[in-house]
Automatic annotation (TrEMBL):
Reactions listed under catalytic activity: ATP + (deoxyribonucleotide)n-3'-hydroxyl + 5'-phospho-(deoxyribonucleotide)m = (deoxyribonucleotide)n+m + AMP + diphosphate
Transmembrane annotation, as ranges: none
InterPro entries cross-referenced by the UniProt entry: ATP-dep_DNA_ligase, DNA_ligase_ATP-dep_C, DNA_ligase_ATP-dep_cent, LigD_ligase_dom, NA-bd_OB-fold
The protein's name: DNA ligase (ATP)
EC number(s) recorded for this UniProt protein: 6.5.1.1
Family, similarity comment: Belongs to the ATP-dependent DNA ligase family.
Limits of the ATP-dependent DNA ligase family profile domain: 118-252
GO BP annotations listed: DNA recombination; DNA repair
Keywords assigned: Ligase
Organism annotation: Sinorhizobium medicae
Keyword Magnesium: no
Matching PANTHER family: DNA LIGASE 1, DNA LIGASE 1/3 FAMILY MEMBER
Amino acid sequence: MARRTSKKKPPDLPPLDPIPARVDPCLATLVGEPPKRPDWAFEVKWDGYRLAVHIEPGRVRILTRGGYDWTERFPTIVDVARRLAVKTAIFDGEAVVLDDKGRSDFGMLQRALGRLPSAVEARAIVFYAFDLIYLNGRDLRRLPLRERRRLLEPLVAGREGAVRLSEEVQADGDEFFRVACEHGLEGIIAKHAEKPYRSGRGEWWQKITCKRRDSFVIVGFEPSTVPDHLGRLLLAARKNDDLVYVGGCGTGWSHDLSRELHNVLASIVTKNPAVSLRRKNAVFTEPMLVAEVEYRAWTDDGKLRHASFKGIRELADDSTIFALR
């Protein structure tokens, strides 16, 4: 008897999602204390550059938070990414350099990237992956965080090279925050395990910092009494479409870094200040650079209190300049 063949049409498979050229990152909202509900997970807050690593057929791309292509700056991350067991993927994470105590150090990262003279090598840069946005033809942004982490962890967990997993900590948020601050970390991140990946700033990702830290535009400097050294940075924040002076920063750099910063700023001096300010010894610069500054609070007249320099960025690299309301 001839075998009867079925004329039933096989079910249609859902179409594959094309890999996005770029995804605006999910950003954490600054809050005063960790959430206390059980559906939140915690991670260390890394002090580095936020990056998206795109793995595509025949190439790897590394994009900054602002969408700039920095692939050539991270050759060791590219090399490891090429060998991951994926066809296509987008990893969300942070590029850092660790100090001798295992803490991320933004200044060391800048030196490894060649922004300032240093013995820190580029191969010291580590990418900590904390989310997976796309994998093998599927856009994962609709999935809750716990599902995205379930897919992420087998790909990078246990690695000790240039690509590693940013570990989740299942713990009491207050206790984890206390320990993080005691160990000199910048703070912690809290993420709601049931929420999808949403671009922009929202309450589903929260950051709790041991001290306040923000980015400000460098609009000038005051020279030190030591020739060719930096005395004080002059800083500005955004207000609508303008820059507004918010005070200065005179600590946070070594003797050698003071000279290096002075030389960098002296190369972009201008006679047209970006802010309305009269100071006897001020030297104004083009608003091309951004200072990462740690501070305790704001004064009543809108100036930074106890500001300390933590690092420098190019303005084009950074879309997080502090904005006054």
